[in-house]
Design goal:
- The complex is a heterodimer of chains A (243) and B (137).
- Chain A contains 8 helices and 2 strands; from the N terminus they run αααβαβαααα.
- Chain A has 243 residues and is mainly alpha-helical.
- In chain A, helix 3 crosses helix 8.
- The N and C termini of chain A lie far apart (48 Å).
- Chain B is mostly helical.
- Chain B has one domain.
- The chains are: A mainly alpha (243), B mainly alpha (137).
- At the A-B interface, helix 1, strand 1 and helix 5 of A face helix 4, helix 5 and helix 7 of B.
- Chain B: Its main location: endoplasmic reticulum.
- Chain B: Pfam families: EMC6.
- Chain B: Keywords: Endoplasmic reticulum, Membrane, Transmembrane, Transmembrane helix.
């Protein structure tokens, strides 16, 4: 086996190991805690309940029913937010570990061609794919480009496996919890996850064009109340998300 | 066999029967893939169907990555053909084979982009690995 192919295989192996490491850290810091298990069960139960209620709601449904749904949605959003906060811990730990690891691997593979690309990347990607490599042959692949591609695919798939199928990536009510910790060194960050979650929420209808000022039986949650007031003008509009 | 079992146990609904007979989660996954390979199946759980789409995309990405790396198919033509095949095959699968109502899933676009980026990254990785191994080893 040539050195180049050995490097290719090694990078894929490193990517698999770092994906497992990330999941492991998340498991230790988050998944096995009672708080996380409780919140996750709560979020799943509430989102199923809410979806069922939304399916059965008719045009002529009373104001009270619609208010009930609104309250449930708010409760769900708060729980979701709390769930995301719990996962923040693991994100910081993973970010720290990976910064150190990336520094180490970058120095090991510095200037080495680890694979040959069967295409010439676009000019703005060449900065990544040909990073620290000598020569003008842009089919030479650097460590960082291959590592990022591996991470994008392997980490997503490992999360899909661990969250019981790709569901966890998709449920509009729990998506932020998954998205915020997915692939921390790759294309999605906390901000992207939050933006996507907001976009999904804007597609789902609110029964009335009212802001969430009802505070009746909502559990106290400083994060929730902050989000409630901040997102109010954003969340009080939108069309139905049908999936 | 099933007749004898019916005498001893109360009759179960089909999904439960499948679970009990074959032992749990593995059987449930088996029934999902069974449904996926049968034409015009009923998908009560939307997430289940989206999972099938997601994993089919990954399988297609691996297969095409291997083929493209072995042939080899080079350049953006390879990427373009991958995108067409990936989107086209899945479109035919959910519109003709499964005959689902796209609107229930948020439209054709939502189904088309389900798992696309992951499958694209996976395709590139597999393509690069096989191309490097076979043509530059």
């Amino acid at each position: 086996m040539s050195t180049m192919f050995a490097d290719t295989v090694l990078i894929v192996f490193i990517s698999v190991c770092t994906a497992l490491l990330a999941e492991g850290i998340t498991w230790v810091l988050v998944y096995r805690t009672e708080k996380y298990k409780r919140l996750k069960a709560e979020v799943e139960k509430q989102s199923k309940k809410l979806e069922k209620k939304k399916e059965t709601i008719t045009e002529s449904a009373g104001r009270q029913q619609k208010k009930k749904i609104e309250r449930q949605e708010e409760k769900l959003k708060n729980n979701n937010r709390d769930l995301s906060m719990v996962r923040m811990k693991s994100m910081f730990a993973i970010g720290f570990c990976f910064t150190a690891l990336m520094g180490m691997f970058n120095s090991i593979f510095d200037g080495r061609v680890v694979a040959k690309l069967p295409f010439i990347p676009l000019s703005y990607i060449q900065g990544l794919s040909h990073r620290n490599l000598l020569g003008e042959d842009y089919t030479d692949c650097s460590f960082i480009f291959l590592y990022i591609l591996c991470t994008m695919s392997i980490r997503q798939i490992s999360v899909a496996f661990s969250s019981g199928g790709a569901k966890g990536l998709r449920n509009p009510y729990s998506r932020s919890a998954e998205e915020m910790t997915l692939v921390p060194t790759s294309n999605r960050g906390v901000r992207m996850g939050l933006v996507k979650w907001l976009n999904n929420r804007m597609k789902a209808p609110l029964p009335q064009n009212k802001c969430m000022d009802q505070t009746d039986s909502l559990p106290p949650s400083t994060a929730g109340s902050f989000i409630k007031s901040d997102l109010c003008p954003v969340l009080c509009k939108g069309t139905r998300q049908t999936n | 066999m099933s007749g004898a079992r019916r005498k001893e146990e109360p009759p179960l609904s089909h999904p439960q029967q499948h679970l009990v007979a074959n032992g749990g989660g593995g059987a449930l996954r088996g029934s999902v893939w069974g449904k996926a390979l049968r034409s015009d199946s009923a998908w009560e759980d939307k997430d289940e169907f989206l999972d099938v789409i997601y994993w089919f995309r990954q399988i297609i990405a691996v297969i095409l990555g291997v083929i493209w790396g072995v042939v080899p198919l080079k350049g953006f033509v390879g990427i373009a053909i991958f995108c067409l095949i990936n989107a086209g095959v899945l479109y035919l699968y959910f519109s003709s084979f499964q005959q689902i109502d796209e609107e229930e899933y948020g439209g054709t676009w939502e189904l088309t982009k389900e798992g696309f980026m992951t499958s694209f990254a996976l395709f590139l990785v597999v393509w690069i690995i096989f191309y490097t191994a076979i043509h530059y080893d």
